[in-house]
Amino acid sequence: MQVYGGSRVMQSTGENQAMRETAMTNPLVFGHNRLTLITPTLFRLESTTDGRFIDERTMFAYDRTSLLADSLYSVEKIEEEGIGSQYPVYRITTPALRIEYVDDGHPFSTSNLTAYFNYRGKEKKFTIRQIQRGNLGGPIETLDRVKSEVPLGNGLLSTDGWHVIDDNRADFLDSDGWISPRPYMPGHLHDFYCFVYGTDYRAALRSLGAISGRTPMTRKWVHGVWYSKYQDYSTEELLEVIDGYRRHGYPLDNAVLDMGWHTNILDNGTGHNGKRHWTGYTWNRNLIPDPKALIDTIHSMGLTLTLNDHPHDGLRPGDERYADFARSLGYDPEGKEIPQFDPGSRRYMEALFRYGHGPTDSLGLDLWWVDWQQNYIYPYVAGTNTRTLPWLNEIFYRHSLRNGKRGATYSRWGGWGDHRHPLHFSGDAYTNWDMLAFEIKLTIASGNAGCFFWAHDIGGHKETGGGELLARWVQFGAMSAALRIHSSRTPEYDRRPWLCGDSLAERSMYAAYRLRSEMMPYTYTSVRQTHDEMVPLTRPMYIDYSGSKEALRYGKQYMYGDLLLTAPIDTIGTGSERMASQTVWFPDGDEWYDFFTHEKHAGGTVAEISKPLESFPLFIKAGWIMPMQPFTMRPASEIPHALVLRVYPSSDDCSNLFRLYEDDGTSMEYEKGRYSRTGLRYERSGEWHSVSVLPAEGEYDGQPEKRSYRLELGTEKPCDVTVDGRKARIGFDDVKNIYTVDIPATPVRKSITVRYRYA
């Protein structure tokens, strides 16, 4: 037997074994075949007739630098009699897999390659011809025109324990990252990326980040509260909408203008929906006479502004900067021929960004909403195998990387690799209970393919379903990547809570909006976890509890970050309180407390949880500290100078550390290490409990020097409470029905410890 550790061979001899020394490195080349070990659970198989392999990047295989380290794999050449007949047999071992390959000179197939992996304590095998039967679902491109459940797309995660992505027709990205049509390569037979992970679903998602690049940090404000409506607002009308949020006490972070921000007089182009004016880049000054003043006013309120863009017709005669645009592309601005939309042309897109977006970007616009619905006109980038939508998402995201800010796009889901361009717009769904239920299901599964951050049309885009439906939808929105309401033009479709005409529903939404505001420190910390680990913010139970079969059985609940379990209600209620319920499974190994009533649920149990319209099933792990903030009208746009720490007691001795993450929220400085983490440790030893805020580590622009804290202690009243050894006063929050301990402003570099027990 020969044992290859990385690139060196270690020899041994034995009976019936022929030996020779050979050097082999990762990627492992066997004649015209190449096997690349990317992670312990991901390998790539290329077969050719000419030995010409592909090292260029693609939209999926975006990071070619990821290779499994030499110390993490071994290769054994086995030449024992009866194994592999006259062909050499190789055994390739990683921490998770054993791959056996017969080097018979033929392409990789079921006859010459098998991978073995552990699945719930048993060895299973994988070959490239196996039929996958247990895919757990993934995102779909859009909910446009969808009225009820439709089939999900595929994700990486499967009860089969593996998934394969075929990248053999993908176009290349050149050295500057621009799309390059795949050259004619008749000898390149296949290019399979084999994710073989058993039940380690987190490993599968980490592997996606290894080959496709990790999802970047988002701008913090996108995870806040949005107002959007398909309506042609004037300056005064939009500012009145914003002021309505202030008057009614609702938080807001981002205001959106749909197509009405630009002129609608253009009549040349392919158009959409029977109209030719959906694309435009000239401000409608009849409605918004001074765009710069409007943007400045919105910014002065601590808000951001998003504009809708249907880019499919580009700039046309009648747009203010058309003449410059046309001349830059070699066209006569007065001529009959106009430039046709061409996203595959670097020259065309640079001109579109310069003359279409540039003037508005220079005013301080925060985000373009890429409302692409033209697959029926431009399904593929001309001359390539690449679909137009994912390519637009790629280049719009790059365009947004300006002035030291993080990239930001808002567009429909473009498929594998599109997790690099958060966040995503699910489209114009109809309004009914079936759609709410399906949107929840879609959101739970979408992270399986890297679609981590949906910002849905909360309440639905079309039709009205009444206050109760809107309230339940808002509760779901409060537990998703962004709380964004949106609807069509019809006045009664407006999803602003105070317009619903149902006082109970409005009280419910008021509570959900406030909860969204208060949870932002926890939400943003969980967003950082998505960046670091490629684990979804809204994740199915089987990611965190893959060892339990119940995690697959209860599909209407999900984890929101590491500590919260929620099961949004998706059915109409009964009685004066509109009571409705969900069946909730509480995973074993943890204790769970109702976030609102503080009722305890033991792990390993199932309960039917009934909730009035003003509440919904939301549970927190015992023995951990969840960071929150006092309610603020700008939850995702402000850096909190006070924190609220919610904790429920563990029944057993333990020591659990949650690390709060913070940065400036918008810049790329986090990539340079300019951010802060603050350890929040809960400990129980015997009858004594302690909550410690550890000194902040790291710094960022805007970081507060001091902070005050409110500790919220669930269950019964604590006693013998001390803060850093000094006796402390116990308070009570009548609204939340919870005991509190207040700590005055303290330097963030100083530790604080609260000790207490229960009588």
Automatic annotation (TrEMBL):
<comment type="similarity">
    <text>Belongs to the glycosyl hydrolase 31 family.</text>
</comment>
<dbReference type="GO" id="GO:0004553">
    <property type="term" value="F:hydrolase activity, hydrolyzing O-glycosyl compounds"/>
</dbReference>
<dbReference type="InterPro" id="IPR033403">
    <property type="entry name" value="DUF5110"/>
</dbReference>
<keyword id="KW-0378">Hydrolase</keyword>
<dbReference type="InterPro" id="IPR051816">
    <property type="entry name" value="Glycosyl_Hydrolase_31"/>
</dbReference>
<dbReference type="InterPro" id="IPR017853">
    <property type="entry name" value="GH"/>
</dbReference>
<dbReference type="InterPro" id="IPR048395">
    <property type="entry name" value="Glyco_hydro_31_C"/>
</dbReference>
<keyword id="KW-0326">Glycosidase</keyword>
<dbReference type="Pfam" id="PF17137">
    <property type="entry name" value="DUF5110"/>
</dbReference>
<feature type="domain" description="Glycosyl hydrolase family 31 C-terminal">
    <location>
        <begin position="536"/>
        <end position="625"/>
    </location>
</feature>
<dbReference type="InterPro" id="IPR013780">
    <property type="entry name" value="Glyco_hydro_b"/>
</dbReference>
<feature type="domain" description="Glycoside hydrolase family 31 TIM barrel">
    <location>
        <begin position="215"/>
        <end position="525"/>
    </location>
</feature>
<protein>
    <submittedName>
        <fullName>Alpha-xylosidase</fullName>
    </submittedName>
</protein>
<dbReference type="Pfam" id="PF01055">
    <property type="entry name" value="Glyco_hydro_31_2nd"/>
</dbReference>
<dbReference type="GO" id="GO:0005975">
    <property type="term" value="P:carbohydrate metabolic process"/>
</dbReference>
<feature type="domain" description="DUF5110">
    <location>
        <begin position="643"/>
        <end position="713"/>
    </location>
</feature>
<dbReference type="InterPro" id="IPR000322">
    <property type="entry name" value="Glyco_hydro_31_TIM"/>
</dbReference>
<dbReference type="Pfam" id="PF21365">
    <property type="entry name" value="Glyco_hydro_31_3rd"/>
</dbReference>
